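just leaving the lab so this will be short. below you get a single protein, a line of residues and a line of whole numbers that encode the local backbone shape. id like you to explain what the token line says about the fold, in plain words if possible. thanks a lot i owe you, the record is right below:

…
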Amino acid sequence: MFREDNIIINSSNEESPPNSQRRRLYKMCAGASVLVFIVLNAIFSSKSSATRSESTNAVTDGGEIVTEQHRNLRELISFHTLLMLKPFDPSTYDPKELRQPKVAVQQVLYFQTGGPEALLQLTMAFHSWMPNDTYMLYHDFSHLTPWLETYPELEEVSQMADTDELVSGDIFIIPEIDCPAHLVARGVHVYRWMLGALSFEANQKSKEAGCKDLSHNFWLSQNLGLNVEKDFVLRPYISPNKKPSHLPSNEKRENLILVNGDDNPTVPHIKSVQEYCEATGDCQIQILKGFTRVELMDLYQRAKVILAMCMRGCERTPIEAVLSGVVMVTDYCHTGKDERDVPVPSSLIIGHPGNDLSPVEIVKSVLTDFETAQAESNAMRELYLGLGPETLAEETKHFMYIHLAHPANAII
């Protein structure tokens, strides 16, 4: 993922309407849809002889001749009635019973970092339950090869070289880049999947161009001018081959402090800890850049602390470290403000309203009583151990269900 500094923050935290209110609204819409169907059905019936003689696609349905237009209307009404009257239950949701658009996910295959990996995971999540309608979009699929070692199932996903194949009603998911207004004008539903923080102005510009938003975490969904309901929060995961099967032993732990590779080591919080370590010799600092996977895993098993400041999203390196037993110390900035994304005690969050300790004091307390701090991080460890391909697939189903339930997104 990519860091952007000097971001303007909007602290809006409006909650999305409760599900019960949404279902009542959907039921009202369903009733109106049924009424419209009755009226239009009467109109079609009154013109049946003319329509039947002109239609080349008429078929017999239980003794009644039904035109293609008539059948599409009937299917649409029954489809929306199903969505609006039936509460969502992922365990019983069968996508085959619903008409679906194509879903194309923009890829950034050249960079082997967290954001591009998340886009691939999202593609596989859709493909797991709608394989015939899921596409990965990229200009040069030779860059896919390095990813196949981790995700061999990507070879089964259909590829799309450009957006010319997208038509009205299709869904196109992009990372946090400029909104392609020409696709919106074509009738394509363009969603930006927010994998990192952009400025309030950039988000407003995208909205004005007609793009809608998804988020990869909860903090981003309600800040920086965004108001993404929780049904549209699609959470990526740490790939299974990077998750430890059990919490590593603490036998190799030393007073080693890691610094997230996306962080600027000159920011005051990090600089003060580095100066303390250099002055006392009680700890060592290591910035996580340029290491192989094997070297990273070794560092995770030796370190006690990882510093991750002002996280613009749920950054993978700190999460991987936490899964390996390292204690994350962050600050009360961006993602660090939302306990749904970072469920750690306030004692580990610099600048938290309930914590007046300095960065050095927080780090010293972790180094002194490491096992206590490690136990206090169990909630975060359990959260990210629990996210995986299955959870993201269920969240994409939920997204599709809510997307198609909106009358403006109907497919006729």
About this structure: The longest strand covers residues 189-194. Residues 1-23, 36-88 have pLDDT under 50 and may be disordered. The CA atoms of residues 41 and 70 lie 8 Å apart. The radius of gyration is 25 Å.
